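Field reference: sequence -> structure
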Amino acid sequence: MNFIDENKTPFLPVQLVGRCLKHFRKFGRIKQPFLGIRGRGLHMLELKDLEKICHKYHKPPSGILVEKIPEVSSANCGGIEAGDIINKLDGVVLHSPAQLTTMLLDTMEVAVNMQPVVLQATVLRPRDGTTFVANLKVVECPHGECHMLLKNRWRLPPPKEYWWGPSEWHDYSD
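Structure field:
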């Protein structure tokens, strides 16, 4: 599913759309998981940043680089800090944020009465080259509040109006 933006095309992978539809059919809504970590796949880093990380390990790691953990959710993250890499979740090697999100959505299917579900994450800490296991508490975000916690909303640009002129296109939207 593609969205509209001026400089890029944000999209939602089909695996996520399928999970959301499954939740909607089963629960009448989407049970939104909230872990409180903002990150990106290592494959999306600039080469110079990825090279620094790869020098810390005997083979190139995969996973999600943690960029931000809001104060409200740091207790759910089992000691993970910004700059850490979530390498595995419950024994499954992570490759992308979309994969992590589908795993979290699957976890929400078995969550009962807004109780947290605990998942084990293998975490790499590049600053000192250590590896540790963190218990992540995944909670269901109250309906309509997830976007407020990480400010996950983007504004759509105003639509442009184009008029056909005698010899060229004119943009009158400004």
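Note: The first strand starts at residue 33 and ends at 34.
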